[in-house]
User: Which sequence fits this backbone?
């Protein structure tokens, strides 16, 4: 089951009733969240780093143009298993807690205590109606002094998965609209998915054209291959229209397809390879050199592998030098393919 992590800043209620610009409305003692009218996000630096889990590191600069006020600020997180779509007993709270670790909040250099629980067990009635009572919420008191306020928070989560071994990672940006200006004046996003990895940004958003690769990699529309480094987006006056949804395709399906390049080059049995043409065997043999960045002199090989997002040819490397760096298993596989090719 895909588990989307939905995390974002949400103003829940104001604690200073005497303020004329209070973000709290009340009716019969029923508290409900409304949009923050004065405090704005001047700057956000969001870093998403995938290793075993996705690590989130966010730096905010909030500006309060008026007198000091205290708000309760929260993060809404879906359960690990939804009672509507799983056979996990909805009352088994321990099994349904989100996979979030090491949650921290620092406000103006002060580590902040927070509370965590099911929305249905909190007094945030209107938030339950919007988000659903089976979602969870982290919430904490944030005192915003007049002027600049620095908020930092970190946590990690493990994302969701599909049957092909692909993984999903989601981060909610739309909650920036809950603050004054309904956006972010100065926004930086860095996504580090690790080395030698392909991934896709699922939403087709115009500002994705502004993504830059910091390091070595390749970009085609919303698809990325990073050999080493990360991708970065910088925008002024960002008005979020979509959340961030990252998909890392699994290779299970690729290795299960007898017609795929990876399957034939790496794991196909001898009896599967023997019927292939000499041209196909040549392509398969050179697959290993392409993965290592060899720049082919043959136009057909260069054209064929240039279609692969992961192909990053490097000038000055000879095939002999690349072959010498390969492990013994790969060298043996290349020799088998060469022998079959020459027998045609």
Assistant:
């Amino acid at each position: 089951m895909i588990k989307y992590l939905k995390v974002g800043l949400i103003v829940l209620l104001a604690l200073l009733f005497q303020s004329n610009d209070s973000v709290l409305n009340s009716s019969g003692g029923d508290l409900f969240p409304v949009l923050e009218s004065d405090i704005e996000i001047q700057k956000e630096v969001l870093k998403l780093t995938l290793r075993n889990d996705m690590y989130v590191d966010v730096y905010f600069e909030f500006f309060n143009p008026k007198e000091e006020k205290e708000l309760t600020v929260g993060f809404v997180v879906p359960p690990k298993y939804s009672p509507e779509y799983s056979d996990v007993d909805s009352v088994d709270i321990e099994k349904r807690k989100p996979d979030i670790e090491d949650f921290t909040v620092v406000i103006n250099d002060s580590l902040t205590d927070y509370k965590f629980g099911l929305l249905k067990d909190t007094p945030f009635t209107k938030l339950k109606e919007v988000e659903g009572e089976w979602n969870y919420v982290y919430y904490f008191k944030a005192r915003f002094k007049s002027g600049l306020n620095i908020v930092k928070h970190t946590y990690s989560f493990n994302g969701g998965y599909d049957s092909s071994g692909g993984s999903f990672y989601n981060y909610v940006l739309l909650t920036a609209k809950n603050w004054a200006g309904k956006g972010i004046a100065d926004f930086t996003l860095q996504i580090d998915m690790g080395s030698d990895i392909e991934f896709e940004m699922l939403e087709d958003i115009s500002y994705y054209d502004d993504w830059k690769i910091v390091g070595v990699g390749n970009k085609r529309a919303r698809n990325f291959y990073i050999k080493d480094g990360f991708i970065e987006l910088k925008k002024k006056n960002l008005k979020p229209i979509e959340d961030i949804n990252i998909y890392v395709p699994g290779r299970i399906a690729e290795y299960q397809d007898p017609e795929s390049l990876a399957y034939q080059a790496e794991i196909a049995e001898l009896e599967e390879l023997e019927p292939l043409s000499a041209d196909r065997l040549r392509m398969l043999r050179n697959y290993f050199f392409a993965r290592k960045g060899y720049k082919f002199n043959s136009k057909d090989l260069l054209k064929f592998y240039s279609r692969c997002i992961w192909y990053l040819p490097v000038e000055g490397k000879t095939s002999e030098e690349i072959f010498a760096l390969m492990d013994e298993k790969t060298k043996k596989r290349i020799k088998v393919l060469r022998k079959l090719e020459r027998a045609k």
Notes: The radius of gyration is 26 Å. The chain is about 20% helix and 40% strand. The first strand starts at residue 9 and ends at 14. Confidence is low (pLDDT under 50) at residues 1-7, 12-35.
